[in-house]
Each structure stands twice: as C-alpha cells, then as structure tokens.
Amino acid sequence: MQICVPLVNIAFALSLIGSVMGVVVSTLSFRFGAARGWERYRLLALVALTASLFGITDAFSSIDVAPPTLLAAIRCQGAVGALHVAGWVLYTQSYLRLQPSRWERLLVLSLVALAPAWLVPGWMIGTKETRFTIEWLHVTYANPETTILGGAAFSFETVAMLVPLMHYARAKRAGVRDAGVHLSAGLAIWLASIHDTLVTLDLFHDPLLLSLAFLITLSILGFAVTRSFVENARALEVMSATLERLVEERTHALVTTKQNLLLAEKMAALGHLAAGVAHEINNPAAAITANLTYLREGMTRKSPPADALECVDESLESVGRIAKIVRQLLEAGRTAASAPRIVHNMSVSRAVRQAVSEAKLHFGSRITASVDVGDDLRAKGDVDALVQVLVNVIVNGAQAIEPERTDGRLSIRAREIEGRISIEVTDNGAGMSEETKRRMFEPFFTTKPFGLGTGLGLPVSLGLVRSMGGDLRVESRAGMTTVHIELERSTLLDVESAPALRAS
To answer: What is the rounded end-to-end Cα distance, in angstroms, of the chain?
Structure first.
C-alpha cells in the first residue's frame, strides 16, 4: 500500500480521528451499559463500533492505494454501513424502550443479511473507478463504480435510516430527554450519506462528509452519555446524603420512641404494682382498723368486750399478712435489681428433700408426694434460693388440688438433659385456664381465695431461677400441671458448706 502524504491529507486525518472516537464511545457505552439501569446504552456500542470501522475503510478512498485494496476497502465499507443502520434501529428501540414491531424485526434482519452481500466482488461494487480532486483541500478521492444492485442496497439503507429518525422525532415532541440530540446526530449522518451519494454519482464535486458527520455525531453522543453518567452520579450522591440523613432521623426517632415505650411500660408496671399492693394491704389493714376501733370503744366504756382476745389475734394475723407481703415485695425487688447471684455447687436431692419437708406443713397427709431425684445430681446455684422456689411451686401445686379430694398426688422428679439439670414438679389438680396461663407471672395475679396467696410466688420464683442462670416454665392442661425448672449442671465437688452471698 502506498500512501501519499497522509499527514497533510485532512480527509484521511478526519477518518482516522473519527475511527478513534468511535472506539472511545463504543468502550464507554459498553462499560456504562453494564451498570444497572443503563442497559439501553449497550447497543450504542454497536453504533459507535461500526462507525469506527467505517472511518477506517473510508480512509482508503482519500489516499493512493492499489485498486484491489481500494475495492476491498469499499466493499467492507458497504457491509459496515448496513450493520451501522441496523445498529441505529436496535439502539433506538432500546434507548426509547420501544417494543419492536414485526416489520422492524424484518428490517433489521434484512440489513444484517445485506452486509455479507456487500463483500461479494462485483455484486455491489464494480471494477471501474473515477477520481476527482478538491484543490482547496489538496485531497484526491477515488470513487469506485457502484452497480445497480449496490445503488439499490444503498437506497434501501438510506430509507431504513429514516425509521430511527422518526422515532426520535416523536420522542422529542413527547419531551423525552436527549431525544433531540439523537435526532440531530442521526439526521447529520443521513444528510451526509445523501450528499456523498450525489458526489459519487458525479453530479457535483464536494468533499465527502460522512466521516466528518460520524466524528461530530460520535462526539455529541459521547458527550450526552458522559453527561448523563455525571448527572446520575451527582443525583446518587445527593440521594445517598438524603438517605443517610433520613436514616439518622429515623434512628433517632426510633430510639426516642423506644425510650418512651420503656418509660410507659415502667409507669404501667408501677401503677399495676401500686394497685396490687393497695388491694393486698388494704384488706388486712381494714381488719386491723375495725378491730382497734371496736376495742377502743370498749375501753372508752371501761368494759372491754368479751371477744377482745379474738380481735387482738385477728389483728396480729392481719399484721403478719402485711409483713409477709412486704417480705415478698423486698425479695422481688432484690431479684430484679441485684446482680446475678453467685452460684455454688449444690446437691439437687438435698434441696428437694428440704423443700418437700417445709411444704408438707401446708398440706399435711391429704396429698401423696413422690420424689425421684438421684443423689449424684449437682447444679450451679444458691441452695436457699432453690429451696424457696421449690417450696413456692410445691405449695402452689398442693393448693391446686381440691381440698375434698383424697387422691391428690405431687411428683417431684429431677434428671440431667443435655448437660442441664431439669426439675419437674407435677400435680394432678384441675389445671390452669387460658387466662391464668397468660397472666400467671404478673405480680399480684392470683386465683386463690383471699388469704391463701398474694400473687407474688411465681414472679419471685422466676426471678430467682433466672438469677442463677436458669429458667422456669409451666405446662398445664386439664387434670395436670407441670412446672419445669432448668439449671446449669455442675461437675464440682460438694462445696455447699461455703456460705452463699445473700443480699442484705
């Protein structure tokens, strides 16, 4: 190949610059199109790449090369031109998010099928060539002869290019962003192709403009794509800052709401506690007040009533009940407010035997209690606290069995399950109602007759067990209730003689 002074050939230079620009825009479009939401720019890479190839082949028409080389380049140029128009149709459908019609699919297939036909020697391009010179540019163009079939193919491609132009014209009227930019770019290529066709038909001699049109078009489209990317990046940055601010505000609002809810829960619990305390203490306090008033009236008349001792005994009993409520309240407060108890290695069987012995004072011999606890079971915990819990649970179970029954049974069983000690206290009483199951751990909730319970046994027991790292749960159905107490298993030697640290 012999090239005549390409450095001063402006047409040759424009073709190469347009080719480089096509590669740049193709690369940008392909990379941007890989991003989510930017898929419509992928087919712009096809438009830019075919424009780049067209620039390379077009450069041969403005330099001195051998005729076979020129003919091969022009045939490739025709094939690339057909693919370029097909790329425009596909890119327009993608960019404007159009559903392609059947005839548009057929149009694209026809253009793709036309491309290899341009490569066949003698079909589209003849063997003759003419040359003309543009003196003021110092450029001589080689113009191979176009066959009738080649002229028809070129006319078909020119008409096909009108399809994307019409879509962009409608989109521009509809206010679609950058539709006018794409319309101007496509229109520049279409007009330049019409101009170059008239020049090659030797109707007049002008510089060939298609390479210049590709250069301008690719520059405009590349700028539009880059501008959209920058604007999206800025918008994303603003949205990110806004989202961070909203998240911070929402987090602050959630924290405030949570604090308000905790405060409301505490106030509700305090109100519930106050109501329960008032109810439990008012009854014995009313009895004490009535007895003291009765005794005072008798002392005023200097004739003590005959039942004065009974009144004193009732008052003392009421005082004892108030003292019991206060003790349980103090124990519940220590359990909730203190740190977890310092646990020791303890014998579960000793704690169970001691608890059963103390609990029997409340139900005597009317209920049969069976104990199934191995002597080798040891748990981590405070033995006094465990005894207190077991006494509460056993007495509750005994009180759940109707007094008139003679077949009452209590079963206390302990075993090791998966590295933990499980203690089960089962009674054959009436069982719990659904409301009792739901509220059994509420302070002062009780179903027992007046004087038999304060409603603090289970809440205090639950707190004591959890302070030792264990858990307490209740299963109940008609005719049977089982309380499960789980504690951590201990493998240490018996150190129960070590004094347990108790809250003062």
So the answer is: 107
3-state secondary structure of 74: helix
Long-range pairs for 482-486 at CB < 8 Å and ≥24 separation? 482/424, 482/425, 482/426, 483/393, 483/396, 483/397, 483/424, 483/425, 483/426, 484/422, 484/423, 484/424, 485/389, 485/390, 485/393, 485/422, 485/423, 485/424, 485/425, 486/420, 486/421, 486/422, 486/423
Segment holding 410, helix H or strand E = strand 408-417
Which stretch of DSSP H or E encloses residue 57? helix 44-59
Given CATH 3.30.1560, say whether it is the number of domain 10-241: no
Out of 1.20.120.160, 3.30.420.40, 3.30.565.10, 3.60.140.10, the CATH code matching 344-488 is 3.30.565.10
SS3 416: strand
- Residue with the bigger pLDDT between 201 and 450: it is 201
Choose among 327, 330, 351: nearest CA to 500.
351
Give me 463's structure tokens. 């707190």
Encode 97-136: b = buried (16+ Cβ within 10 Å), e = exposed: eeeeeeebeebbeebeebbebbeeeebbbeeebeeeebee
What CATH architecture is 244-337? Orthogonal Bundle (1.10)
Give the whole-angstrom CA distance, residue 43 versus residue 29.
8
Global pTM value: 0.51
Whether pLDDT at 294 is above 60: yes
Q: Where are the domains of the chain?
A: 10-241, 244-337, 344-488
The whole-number pLDDT of residue 450 equals 54
